[in-house]
Amino acid sequence: MTKTIVLAYSGGLDTSIIVPWLREHYNARVICVAADIGQGNDELKGVREKALASGAEECYVEDLREEFVRDFIFPTVRAGAIYNRKYLLGTAMARPLIAKRQVEVALRIGADALAHGCTGKGNDQVRFEMTFATLAPHLPVIAPWREWDIRSREDAIDYATAKGIPIAATKEKIYSRDANLWHLSHEGGNLEDPNSAPRADMFMLTVDPQAAPDAPEDVVIGFEKGTPVSVNGEALGPFALVSALNAIGARHGVGRIDLVEDRMVGMKSRGVYETPGGTLIYSAHSELEQLILDRKTLSAKDMIAPRYADLVYEGRWWTTEREAYDAFVTVTQERITGTVTLRLYKGGMQVVGRESEHALYDERFVTFGEDDVYQQSDAAGFIRLFALPNRVRAIKDQELAAARELIAATPVEELTVV
User: Fold this and answer.
1) Which of 64, 130, 215, 234 has the smallest count of CB within 10 Å of its CB?
2) Which of 48, 124, 269, 270 does the annotation list as catalytic?
3) Are residues 158 and 55 in the same domain?
4) CA 251 to CA 119: how far, in whole Å?
């Protein structure tokens, strides 16, 4: 009986050559699952036809755009999760969703195995297979990059050429890219030298900051319970909101990130990311929290944020750990409602306004005048108690020093030997 393998398919170089390879080496029917997560019509155009032409029996193109933003991007934003100080987790957030839909298709058609096009050096193999293990632990996983004798992207291009498979990658322009609504990532080529500047023609979303408009632009982002809901006063759904902010940030050259990051497998890699809308949302959300949350809650949330980022980066989405973090974050976001105004100019961004009815900042309490809530004379007692550990330590140190001086000044014959 012919086996059925369900492949996560993007139409890029790797997955394009995997279709005929799976048929040849496993004598199997190949069913492709392509996910629309906002990478754009150009990338998805003809993806089903391409999969079928490569030998797939069927290719399901799934529209996951709203779900991606609502259930993956926004929870990660609310958590404040940023990996390696810079990375806004565009690829990492998408993989559990794609893998989930792949599993759903596999279970529906009674597939015998799951397959992906992730390399044996990357993070995505872990992210896909963590989801597979959680949602379909009985299905074996096929990862061609860990099996075949293709060892480079040049080899992959040669294989595609030999099989007559059309591809966009060339040996001269060989960047590995991953696109979705949240970001566009670039790896490979001259970027493999961390001391080599990105080439101007590599960027595809954001304009060169030097070529950005000569006049600054203000953008107002509105939030309800930590979730962005409006741009410049206009209420927008999740997908439309991120799309609108992408356009605004991109035209001002905002959101370019050049990062040498730590992969899960232990090596460092260099990637360049374009995340214009995401950069605006993260900055505005952080500023609103600073206005509303008390110091201890903000500090506790800042401890959770990098752990949440690690969780997302490592593909541990379907875990009790994430559910527990989300429960904590949800409580912290109850009052994160308001607006933040950002000013964009030539690749830069600054906060110029923030407003919320829940703001803990209140002009009445920060002036130098007296009020009913805060009496300046109360500060003396507070400081005395706050400094009590310092005071006790100083007294003890003084007593010990005095004792040592007394011993040093006493003649030896007068010292009592016990």
Assistant:
1) 215
2) 124
3) yes
4) 34
- 176 is a catalytic site residue: yes
Same domain flag for 135 and 196: no
139 and 27 fall within a common domain? yes
CATH number, domain of 190, equals 3.90.1260.10
Residue 415's CB is within 10 A of a number of other CB atoms, namely: 9
* In a domain? residue 150: yes
Nearest-10 Cα torsion for 257, 328, 135, 91: -10
| pLDDT the model gives residue 413 | 73
Parts of the chain with a pLDDT under 50: none
Structurally, the chain folds into a number of domains equal to 3
pTM more than 0.85: yes
Please answer whether residues 289 and 382 qualify as being in contact, where contact means their C-beta atoms are separated by less than 8 angstroms.
no
Residue 362 is predicted with a pLDDT of 82
Catalytic residue (choose from 10, 14, 101, 354)? 14
CA distance 175 to 181: 19
Catalytic residue from among 48, 78, 95, 256:
95
Q: Looking at the structure, tell me whether residues 124 and 201 fall in a common domain.
A: no
Starting from the edge strand earliest in sequence, which strands make up the sheet with 268-274, in order? 176-179, 184-187, 268-274, 256-262
Residues 60, 17 share a domain: yes
- Does the annotation count 14 as an active-site position? yes
Q: Which residues pair with 377 in a beta bridge?
A: none
CA distance 14 to 157: 9
Whether residue 212 lies inside any domain: the answer is yes
Q: What is the pLDDT of residues 77-125, one digit of tens each?
A: 999 999 999 999 999 999 999 999 999 999 999 999 999 999 888 899 9
Q: Quick one: 168 and 226 in the same domain? A: no
For residue 21, give its domain range. 3-65+89-172
Residue 107 placed within a domain? yes
The token pair at 5 is 């393998």
List C-alpha distances in Å: 42 to 37, 144, 230: 13, 27, 27
- Please confirm, yes or no, whether 124 is among the known catalytic residues: yes
| 411 domain-assigned | no
Q: Do 55 and 25 meet the contact criterion of CB atoms below 8 Å apart?
A: no
Question: 60 has which bridge partners?
Answer: 33
pLDDT by residue (tens digit) across 225-234?
999 999 999 9
At residue 5, the 3 state secondary structure works out as: strand
95 is catalytic: yes
Residues 242 and 380 both lie in one domain? no
